[in-house]
């Protein structure tokens, strides 16, 4: 029998070979028969040796074969003695007796168990909306609960059965099916989450297995919010250490237009234009007029950033940046002199200071000349370097004429311009 059952082409399958199965107190014989060795075959798959693994053979037979009363001259069938009529829903202890065509026999008195249950199937499950908003958070769920019977695979409506309506995998409502298996119920959705119908196995219907519908993702339509900045009203330039006042208003969109939004929390940063670490200005909760106000002395050029965020998923976040505030640090000449040399030139010397902590990476100093002290011309450019007590510079001007001399430092993105005192070349 082992050879006959493990082969499915061009071989006698062994008429009369059988496996006798005892389900609890019910004894059922499953017989595999073929009558035309050239064309008949067993159901496809690796059946294995029924004398070594009778449960595996039985499982293949129960899952792949039709169950119907034994009939002669039929092909490609596994037959049982009215298995559909003799089986009630439930769990069965299985004992297997396998007898081969050559008379070999094996018995397994504890071959396993058979769960002969109805599988729950949820059909046509749908929601009345796929998006909720702040004022409409209820979602209706409709569907049909059916059961698939194990012998015939027939779907039948399951009446008066409970169906859980889950929101984000948590049960929010439980409804019961009507006589046609239909159900309907509502759930409250407070976030962008999946909604689904679930039938869960219970002792009230012990022979119906669990089943669930495909989740339906519910989205959230948020309330739009926006910030407007009243101050600073435009871009401006300030000296380092100077305070700037910030005023901004948060609004929410309504059918009547934009209105102030009270009770929303957030914070203000000052973001440097060149990147790097932002400075915290403060935190807030908007008042009845939706306004926030702060003063801040920025360290460098940048913008205020006002942002609000709500834990309520129905309220959209909002942010805005102010116009640019340019911050310039001071630069000063602490000394400057011009002395005539024997070769008819002029030797200039001086020093600079940057009192607001920062120093330019390079410090170009332009030596300028004027005949009358009004119109100035660049003669030479030198660089100031740290001398231990300041940033000193010097330069020699050849062929110097009689007139006035001075040193000039041009403004940068971070430093104001500076000009030394005006001097005449001394002897």
Describe the structure.
The chain is mainly beta. It folds into 4 domains: about 1-115, no CATH class; about 120-220, Immunoglobulins (Immunoglobulin-like); about 225-330, Sandwich (Immunoglobulin-like); about 330-425, Immunoglobulin-like, CATH 2.60.40. Helices cover about 5% and strands about 50% of the residues. The chain contains 3 helices and 35 strands. The strands form 8 sheets. Strands 7, 10, 11, 13, 15 and 16 form a 6-stranded mixed β-sheet that branches. A 5-stranded antiparallel β-sheet has the order 3-2-1-4-5, covered by helices on one side. A hairpin with a 5-residue loop joins strand 4 (about 90-100) and strand 5. The chain is elongated, with a radius of gyration of 46 Å. The N and C termini lie far apart (about 130 Å).
What would a concise description of this structure say?
With 427 residues, the protein is mainly β. Helices cover 5% and strands 50% of the residues.
Attribute tags:
disordered N terminus, elongated, Immunoglobulin-like, 5-stranded antiparallel sheet, 6-stranded mixed sheet, 35 strands, 4 domains, mainly beta, 5% helix, 3 helices, 427 residues
| Number of structural domains | 4
Number of helices: 3
How confident overall, as mean pLDDT? 82
Oligomeric composition of the shown chains: single chain
Which structural class best describes the helix and strand composition?
Answer: mainly beta
Biggest sheet statistics: 6 strands, mixed
The backbone outline, from C-alpha atoms, is elongated
* N-to-C span: 129 Å
What Rg do the Cα atoms give? 46 Å
The count of strands amounts to: 35
Report the helical percentage. Answer: under 10%
Q: Strand-residue fraction?
A: over 45%
Unreliable sequence segments:
1-86
């Amino acid at each position: 029998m082992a050879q006959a059952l493990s082969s499915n082409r061009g071989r006698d399958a062994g008429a009369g070979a059988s496996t006798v199965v005892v389900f609890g107190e019910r004894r059922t014989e499953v017989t595999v028969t073929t009558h035309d060795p050239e064309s008949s075959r067993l159901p496809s798959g690796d059946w294995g040796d029924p004398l070594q693994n009778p449960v595996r053979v039985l499982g293949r037979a129960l899952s792949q074969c039709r169950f119907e009363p034994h009939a002669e001259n039929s092909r490609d069938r596994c037959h049982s003695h009215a298995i559909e009529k003799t089986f009630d829903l439930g769990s069965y202890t299985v004992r297997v007796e396998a007898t081969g065509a050559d008379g070999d026999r094996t018995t397994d008195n504890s071959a396993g168990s058979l769960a002969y249950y109805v599988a729950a199937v949820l059909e046509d499950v749908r929601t009345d909306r796929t998006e909720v908003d702040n004022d409409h958070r209820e979602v209706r769920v409709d569907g049909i609960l059916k059961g698939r019977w194990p012998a015939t695979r027939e779907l039948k409506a399951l009446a008066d059965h409970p169906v859980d309506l889950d929101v984000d995998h948590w049960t929010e409502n439980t409804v019961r099916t009507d006589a046609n298996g239909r159900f309907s119920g509502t759930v409250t959705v407070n976030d962008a989450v999946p909604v689904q119908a679930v039938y869960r196995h219970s002792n009230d219907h012990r022979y119906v297995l669990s089943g669930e519908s495909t989740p339906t993702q519910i989205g959230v339509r948020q309330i739009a919010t926006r910030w407007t900045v009243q101050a600073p009203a435009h871009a401006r330039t300030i000296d380092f250490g100077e305070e700037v006042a910030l005023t901004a208003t948060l609004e929410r969109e309504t059918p009547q237009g934009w209105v102030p939004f009270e009770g929303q929390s957030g914070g203000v940063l000052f973001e440097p234009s060149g990147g790097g670490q932002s400075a915290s200005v403060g935190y807030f909760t908007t008042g009845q007029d939706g306004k926030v106000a702060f003063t801040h002395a920025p360290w460098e050029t940048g913008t205020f950033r006002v942002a609000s965020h709500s834990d309520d998923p129905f309220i959209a976040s909002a942010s805005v940046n102010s116009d640019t505030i340019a911050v310039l640090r001071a630069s000063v000449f602490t000394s400057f002199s011009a002395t005539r040399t024997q070769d008819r030139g002029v030797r200039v010397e001086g020093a600079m200071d940057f009192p607001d902590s920062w120093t330019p990476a390079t410090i170009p100093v332009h030596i300028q000349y004027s005949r009358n002290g009004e119109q100035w011309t660049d003669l030479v450019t030198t660089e100031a370097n740290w001398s231990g007590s300041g940033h000193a510079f010097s330069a020699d001007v050849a062929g110097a004429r009689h007139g006035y001399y001075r040193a000039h430092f041009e403004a940068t993105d971070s430093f104001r311009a500076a000009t030394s005192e005006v001097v005449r070349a001394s002897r």
